[in-house]
Structure formats: C-alpha cells, structure tokens
Amino acid sequence: MQFLFFDIECACCHKHGNGVMCEFGYVLTDEKFGVLEKEVLLVAPEDKFDWYVVQNMLAFDKEEYIAAPNFKERYDKIKSLLEGDGVVVFGHTTEVDAHYLNYAASRYGLPFINFEFYDLKKIHMHKRHLRNGASLENILVDLQLEFEGHVHRSDDDAYATMAAVKELCRIYETDGQSLAAEYAKYRGSTKDGQITNAPYVFTRKENDRRLISILKHYADKNTVEQSNFFYLTRLANSKSRGKIIDSPLNGKKICIDRDYQKTHFKEMISLIWLIKRHGGKCLFYPAYCDVFVNALPDGAERKHGNYLRRAQSGNAEIITLGQLLDIFNVTEDRLYNMPLPPAKAFAKREKE
Asked: Which residue among 30, 202, 244, 246 is the one 20 to 30 A from 126 at the CA level?
C-alpha cells in the first residue's frame, strides 16, 4: 500500500467553483509515511490570472506557469498517480480539488479521472471533537507542527497534509492503513465527473441523539449558529441545581473565547454546566466578565480578536482552557463525553 497526498492551486476561479489549475503538487509515501516522491507539476492555465492570486498565492513567477505544459500534457501523469493500484489518496477539502480535476478534464475533452479520496479536514474534526473544519495551517498549529515550505505551493501543502495525517496516527496510536479503514464511511469519490462525498455527521450515540432531540425544535427556523447560541444562553441563565462546589470560580463571571464557542458546542454545554456547579456564571459579553478563557492554541488564527481585547480592557483575568479544566479536574475528552444536563435546563430562565 502507498499513500498519495495531493493539492491543487488555481490561477483563477469561474462560476460554480470551476477553478483553472496552475499547479498539481503531490507527495507519494510508503505505508509508514516514508516519502518516495515529492513533486510540483506546473500547469499552464491558458486563462487569466486572478489579481489576488498573483499578489498573494503564487509560489513561482507568472511567466513560469504560462510556459509550463498545459493540463492535456500533464493528464497522463496526474491520472496515473490518482488511479494507481494500491494507492490511498488523501487531501485537504479534497472534494474541491476533485472538482477542479473534473473541470479541467471537461475543458480539454479528456476522460474524467476516477478515484476515491480521504479528507484530512474530516479526520481532524472527528479526532479533535470539532464541529467545524479547520484550515490546513490551523490544523498544523493544533498538532504543534511547523509548516515547512511555501504556503500555497501545492507540493508543500501536500507534504503538510501528509505530516498532519502522520501526526494524528502517532497521537492516536494507529497507522495509515487502520486510519483509512476507520474513516472509510467518510471516504469520497469522483467517477465519470460526479463527486460523491459522504457527509460528515458528528455523532456519539446517546449523547448526540439526546442533543439532537433538544435542538430539533429550532433546527428549521434558525441557522445552526443561532440555535446553538440560543441554547447556550438558556443554559447559562437556567436555575442551578445541586450542591455548589467550593471553587476559585465562586461568584465569578466567566466568558469563554468566541472562537471556541462557535466550534465546540457540546463542550460549551459541559463547560457552562461545570461553571454553574462551581458557583460561577457564564457570560457572553467579555467586557463585563471577571475571568476570560482564552481557548485557542498558541499561534492559531483568531477570527474574533475583539473578544479578547474587550476582556483585557475590562481588566479581566485571562486564563487558558487548560487552566479552567484543571479547576474542574477534567480532561478535554472527558469534557466532551460528560452527560448532558436535563432538557428543562435549556427551557427555563433563572428568575432575577
């Protein structure tokens, strides 16, 4: 068995996500991730270059792409790589790259390239208990891996994908073949120009079935984010039940990083419940909190930086997620697998 990690860069993108390829980069490894080949194939786009791509993304001079072989000339090499016997194909948001390949084949009147593929984004989401996928750069940050090479150079991105898959195997004590078998149900494929990409459904048996029943009433009327925020605020304002634990959080107002809130809904439910048990109150307004939980790993891209700045301007104590979990004496995995609060906790607001 061999593993093929690949990435595609485009000169421009037309309607319906029809990207015009200018690079096909790949890394071919053995079953232990030993690198056998690493190469970038420049492809003449024979189309315009988007100004943003030229300014921010190209790893080579524009003239080098123009002078390169076109897709028709690169076709046999790319097809042999993706359709190779005993080759397992990985990428990041791989269905997008498969769409680029289909568009290129159609554009040049060539037979479609047919292959099955695995998506690092889905594997990472499942392994790290995330509700949304992360960029390749942020996956590397989460796994504490340094990016070696040029961002948006396709063979370097393919190598980074390989490094991330290899590290996930190390962390979770498995190997590439077993990982592929584990995620076969999320495997995608492209055949005769049609892409089949198994939807990612994040379920954990009874916990998630119960959670789905709680959220079902609002699923058709609100976006997922709106529904999630609605229920988190309901839980934060519900009546406290049970004995309050003597804790450093007694009487404190705690605000958790907005970036974490948006991507860790199940964990947020458990955190709010724990904060209440420890005599604290979860707020969603960082300027008014006593403690702000900075939940992003070091170096991760922050989309809601004003959340942290507002907490700092209000002289809140800044702690990490790890420090908060130490207070609760739970691990991240235990946090996710905690039983859900009773459904009525989401429905009744605390009386002032």
From this structure: 30
Dihedral, CA atoms, 35, 37, 42, 45, nearest 10 degrees?
Answer: -80
How much is the average pLDDT of 191-216?
60
Distance CA 134, CA 333 (A): 19
Could you give phi then psi for residue 134, rounded to 5 degrees?
A: -110, 155
pLDDT beyond 90 at 37: yes
Beta pairing partners, 317: 291
- Residue 297, classified by CB atoms within 10 Å of its CB into exposed (0-12), middle (13-18) or buried (19+), is middle
| Closest alpha carbon to 284 in 300, 297, 298, 268 | 268
Fill in the amino acid letter for 151. V
d(CA 102, CA 192): 8
- Token output for 29: 């490894």
Tell me the C-alpha distance between 278 and 242, whole Å: 11
Whether the per-residue pLDDT at 313 is higher than 90: the answer is: no
**Contact between 117 and 128 (Cβ < 8 Å):** no
pTM over 0.85: no
Give the integer Cα–Cα distance in Å for 70 and 278: 64
The answer to whether residues 134 and 224 touch, using CB atoms and an 8 Å cutoff, is no
Of all helices (H) and strands (E), which one includes residue 281? strand 281-283
Strand pairing category for 18-30 and 35-42: antiparallel
Query: What are the Cα distances from residue 220, in Å, to 215, 227, 343?
Result: 10, 10, 19
- Please count the helices (runs of H) and the strands (runs of E) in the chain: 15, 11
| Helix 94-107, helix 71-82: angle, nearest 10 | 140
Nearest to 2 by CA among 189, 176, 169: 176
Rounded Cα distance, 79 and 90, in Å: 15
